[in-house]
Amino acid sequence: MAQIRIENVRKDFGTFNAVQSSTFTIEDGEFFMLLGPSGCGKTTTLRMMAGLELPTSGEIYIDGEEVGMKPASQRDIAFVFQMFALYPHMNVGKNISYPLLSQGMSKAEAKKKVDEVAQILGISDILKKPVGGLSGGDRQRVALGRAIVRNPKAFFMDEPLGALDAEFREHMAEELRALHDRMGATTVYVTHDQLEAMQMGDKIVVMNHGVVEQFGVPQDIYDWPATMFVASFIGSPAMNFLEFHGMVGSGATSLTLGDSEISIPQMRSGATGDLAMGIRPEHVHLNDTSTYRGEVIATEYLGTTQIVTLNTPNGEVKARVASSKKVAVGETAGLGFDERSISVFDKQSQRALLSAGNEGVLQHG
Amino acid sequence: MSFSVTEPTIRTKWFAGTAVILYAVITILPLMWIVATGFKSPADSIAYPPKVVFEPTLEGYVNLFTTRTRLAEGDMAALPPAETWYEKIVRDQGQIISGPSRYGERFLNSVIIGFGSTVLCMVLGTAAAYAFSRFRVPLKDDLLFFILSTRMMPPIAVAIPIFLMFRQLGLNDTHLGMILLYTAVNLSLSVWLLKGFIDEIPVEYEEAALIDGYTRFQAFYKVVLPQAATGIASTAIFCLIFAWNEYAFAVLLTSGTAQTAPPFIPTIIGVGGKDWPAVAAGATIFLVPVMVFTILLRKHLLRGITFGAVRK
Predict the structure, then answer these.
(1) Which structural domains are found in chain B, ordered by start?
(2) In degrees rounded to 5, what are phi and psi of residue A228?
(3) Taking the model in full, what pTM does it have?
C-alpha cells in the first residue's frame, strides 16, 4: 500500500482549465474522499492519479515514485468505474482474473486468487455467470473483486455507488467501508454526495471550479469551513450566512448585527466591508429573551428535529430545533447563537477569517 | 424495446402478411428465374410463352466450364464413344470439348479480389474508425467529411484518371491493383459505419483494461474488437457485396490475368449462339460465395443493421 502525493497538479483541456494547481497528500491506508459538485475537477484529478489523463503540469507521487507521465498499466493501481465497466464478453470469474493474467500469472494460480476474492465478497456462486444479467449490487461486487484481486498500491473509485438504487447504496457504502478497514488499502473515492463523503471518509478534499477549497478530516471541514463554498456545500441544510456590512477587528470577541451584540470566538484576523456570520442550523436556537429576532416563514418536520426558517434583517436563517417545540408560521421569535461555533467570512474573498475557533483547522491545511 | 400499444387487428395482419409475401415474391422471382434458366436447354430458355415446367439438364453448367468445337456429322460418328457424362452432353449438341473455359480462373480472381479487398478494408477501416472515435484527431470533422465526400459521386466518374494512374504504376490488370481500388472505394463506408459502432462501446472498457495492466493495443485487441464484432461483420458484408458485384471498373481495368467474374459472364453469350443457360449457370454459381458469407454472418448482420435502435 502507498502514500499518494499530489503537487501543483494542473490540467487544461484546450483553453478550459479543469484543475488548477492542486496540492494534497493521501496517507497510506487512508479512505480519502474527493468531494465537489459536478464539473469541479474531482474526476479529472482522480483520472490523473490513475494515469487515464496526463497532467498539464505538476507531479503525482505514488509510494514515493513520480508517476505523472506513466501509463495507467504501469502504476499498479485499481480503478472502480461508475458504470462498473465489466468486460461484457467475459463471465464473472474471467472479469476478476483479467488483471492477474496481464501479469503473466498462471491460470491455476489466478483461479485460486479469484476464489479467495469471491469468498470475501460473497459472490462464489456467480463466478460462472455472464455479467450481463447481474443485479446492480453484484456488478458492483464483481467490479470490486476485479480491483482487489491483485493487491494494488491504491484503489481509485469514481462515484462507485452512483449507479445503484438509493436503498442499496447505503448497504454498499457500509460494505465498502468494511472492506477498506479489513484490507487497509489506500483508497481515493470521488463523490458529489457530501453525506457519503462524511460517512465514509477518513479525510476529505473539497473542490470547486478546479480549485481545492479545503482539505481535512470530515468533522473539521464541517465545523470550520475555510470558504463560503465549503460552508454551503457541506451540511444539509447548509450553513446559515447572516450578511452585514461593518468591521470585525483582530482580537474582537463579538460582532454587531442590527442592535444586537453577538459573541463570537476571539478573532485572530480582522476585516472591514461586506461580511457574513456563518452558523450551522443546529447551533441556532429559539430563545425568546434574545433581542435578535426574526419572523418564522416556514417549518419542516423531520422526525426528531424540525427545520424552522426565519426571516431576519440579515437574511434567511434556518434553525434545527427539537420537534417537540411548538412553532407557528407568522410568529416572531428570538434567536440565540452558540458562540463557540460561529465563523466569520469576508464576502470579498469568500474566505473565513481566522479565529480562536478555526485557527487549528485552517492553519495546518 | 418498444411495443405498439394496440393489438393489430386481423385485417392489419392480413394486409401486412400479404405485403411481405408480395415483396418477397417480387425480389425472389428474378433469382428463381436465373437459377431455373441455368438448368434449361437453350431452346427451353428462349421458349415463348416461357416454360415453367421443363426437363432439367446440366448443359448450361457444362458449357460454362468448357470450350467446345463443332464437328461435321461424319467426323462425329467416327469418334470413340463418350467417356464421361459431360462429354456426352456436349456431343449431343454436335460438339466436342476442346478445353476448359476461363470461368474457373475468373471466379477465383473474384474470390481473391473480393475477399482480399474486404479484409484490407476491415483492417484499415477498424483502425481508422478507432482512432477517429477515441483520439483527439486534429481537424477530425473535416477529415471525416472529406472521407465521406469520396462517395458523393459515382466511383466510375474517376475511372479515366484511375486508368491512367494504374497504367503508370503497372497496376492495370493485376490482383493488387483491383484489391487497392475496391479498398479505396469501400474504405469511406467502412470508416463511417465502424466509427458508429465503436462510438457505442463505452470507453471505460478500454480504460479498465489499461488499469488492469494491458497496453493500449492489447485493450483494443482484447476488449474493443470482440465488442465491435457485430459492426465489423455487417460492414464486411457490405464491402464484400460491393467488391464482388463491381462491374464497371472490372471491365475497364482488367482483361486477362486479374479479370473478375462479372465482366466475364457476359462474354459467354458470344460463344456459339446465345447461350443463356450457361450465362444463368455462371450467375448462379457467382451468387454462392456471397450467400454463404452472408448466412455465416447472418446473426451479426441482423443485429448490426438494427444497431442503435435496440439498446442492450
Answers:
(1) 104-305 (1.10.3720.10)
(2) -65, -30
(3) 0.79
